[in-house]
Amino acid sequence: MKGATLVALAATIGNFLQGWDNATIAGAMVYINNDLNLPTSVQGLVVAMSLIGATVITTCSGPISDWLGRRPMLILSSVMYFVCGLIMLWSPNVYVLCFARLLNGFGAGLAVTLVPVYISETAPPEIRGQLNTLPQFLGSGGMFLSYCMVFTMSLSDSPSWRGMLGVLSIPSLVYLFLSVFFLPESPRWLVSKGRMDEAKKVLQQLCGREDVTDEMALLVEGLDIGGEKTMEDLLVTLEDHEGDDALETVDEDGQMRLYGTHEHQSYIARPVPEHQSSLALHSRHGSLANQSMILKDPLVNLFGSLHEKMPEAGGNRRSGIFPHSGSMFSTNADAPHGKPAHWEKDIESHYNKDNDDYASDDGAGDDDDSDNDLRSPLMSRQTTSMDKDMIPHPTSGSTLSMRRHSTLMQGNGESSMGIGGGWHMGYRYENGEYKRYYLKEDGTESRRGSIISVPGGPDGGGSYIHASALVSRSVLGPKSMLGSAMVPPEKTAASGPLWSALLEPGVKRALVVGVGIQILQQFSGINGVLYYTPQILERAGVDILLSSFGLSSISASFLISGLTTLLMLPAIVVAMRLMDVSGRRSLLLWTIPVLIVSLIILVISELVHISKVVNAALSTSCVVLYFCFFVMGYGPIPNILCSEIFPTRVRGLCIAICAMVFWIGDIIVTYSLPVLLSSIGLVGVFSIYAAVCVISWIFVYMKVPETKGMPLEVITDYFAFGAQAQASAPSKDI
């Protein structure tokens, strides 16, 4: 995971620059006003230009990133930061300064919008939340260091606001260097464009190993949007392929064979008996069809059931069928049976064919054509008349040799079907097409499964593991069997944004979650508390204490602001540790109540005067608690969720919609705050914020599912399945 972590750190420098600039402009405005004698409206315009620039660039950044890639947009962000820093260092008048602030907004908008997407697309599921909390940490760290710089410069006789703002070009130059020479392109974006060789190399860099077959297969499957999906409850065992005894098509008693992405790797699966299926599948289907709370989204219960530790259904407790839940970025370099031969050979050329080539007969062609086919790792074209009654193995060019005696592990004991977070992927050949199975072993949170002894298994009795499966048609199905040619992904993307995909039930449901949580976050009070903090600390006597050290009131305010941001950093570190353990939803549900209580106590301290010391202590404590718990939950999680819940092909477009809502909300809150303070006062403003936080908690409880540890492709598939299942619930049994 070292490669993914370093890449995330380098990308997050963009958020560091945003935090740095936010603090710098707050401090520099005092000296800008003194130097240029700006009227109040123009002062607001100087600050607002950055927000305007971020809002404008956000409206097009997502579709452009889907077209050109994530990396070019991050490079553009670093260039914007660098150029605006140089212009602000020069700035002969307010017009040039406003132009520089506009460029700064472009850079900030790109960073805030695309860095979480980039990290989510390059990070392993097990630590994706932790790495995606880095933008919050580095952003707050940038604010702290900037306040320290502004405070130091304020101690001089004639502080230079141009110097304060121009320093931004130095760290932005580092960001530019890393963006150009270190950051790779997102492997998911590369796969969506058919650039398979490049995607493979990036995955090898991130994984730290050569064999990335499972990851490549997962990323290709992630190109799917919508489609019919079902859920099955299975008992699964790993099949051994050594020897010469051929096992006929496994279909007796509901048994079936699931193929892996590696040659000579498959599972034998069978449906769970009715009396055992109630442990998992029936409860999950019931969560979709029968809701005890009308307004609660069934997806919340569905996702929650995936994270529950299911009870063991008898049998001895031994190592599971997936003894070491394969990680997308595991360090296992010696996958059993090595790399599949077909996947390694010029697979990118498959996407350079014309549509007529896609419509050609998949059963025809020579060996080279098979090697160049994206589907070649998963299916064979070399079947003969002797094989017609056999299931063709997706990764070998001949009929498989199956032994009736299965084992639970292969090779070094690692399952190479792991796609991260305890999830696994397999394929089933049925009725002329391949179906994709996302498998989750019930009770794998401890990473040890229970083996169920099932009568009627191989040799009259066998060991199976209980697993839940989300089933849908694979995007790699052959044309002659699917009935239509598979369109090259890069041609689909080049035609423009997939606006029609926004109407898919799963995408619409994800947009409700993303847009809703972004709006509520902006109106939860963070801007108001930041605005009010200096007054609260002044009331607590902190300014008097600092003035005793010979500090001016301006320098004291800078130091107070720096100390306030410093308090956030330990809280963010705690959030980083909990993000992939407790989960996003859980963190929101127990941090938002603290925000509510803090705001209520602030209102009470304004209404009820106990004593100056007590009131000051209450206000200061509430502000500290609010900041710490906000950055633990409501600060980073909305961006994390939005970067996880949308399909690969429309992720940039959907993120742009959510980010635009974020920036518009930021502008509304920022410029409505002074008006609200003058009309309804501080008590009224904080009462509104507390009410919004209550609404936020209800929204999270009702609508926001838990996504920790799940591959992005699995998350989007479950959104699609849940939306489809709920829509069909009144008419048929799910």
Automatic annotation (TrEMBL):
Per UniProt, which keywords does this protein have? Membrane, Transmembrane, Transmembrane helix, Transport
Q: Membrane-spanning residues where?
A: 43-61, 73-90, 102-119, 131-155, 161-183, 553-575, 587-610, 616-641, 653-673, 679-700
Give a yes or no for keyword Metal-binding in this entry.
no
Domain spans labelled Major facilitator superfamily (MFS) profile: 7-708
Q: Where is this region: Disordered?
A: 314-403
Annotated membrane topology is:
Multi-pass membrane protein
User: InterPro entries given for it?
Assistant: MFS_dom (IPR020846), MFS_sugar_transport-like (IPR005828), MFS_trans_sf (IPR036259), Myo-inositol_Transporter (IPR050814), Sugar/inositol_transpt (IPR003663), Sugar_transporter_CS (IPR005829)
Q: Does the keyword Transport apply?
A: yes
Q: In which residue ranges is the amino acid composition biased (Acidic residues)?
A: 357-371
Primary location class: membrane
Q: Which Gene3D superfamilies match?
A: MFS general substrate transporter like domains
Its annotated compartments are:
Membrane
List where Basic and acidic residues composition bias occurs.
341-356
Family the UniProt entry places it in: Belongs to the major facilitator superfamily. Sugar transporter (TC 2.A.1.1) family.
Protein's recorded name: Monosaccharide-sensing protein 1
Q: What organism is the protein native to? A: Camelina sativa (False flax)
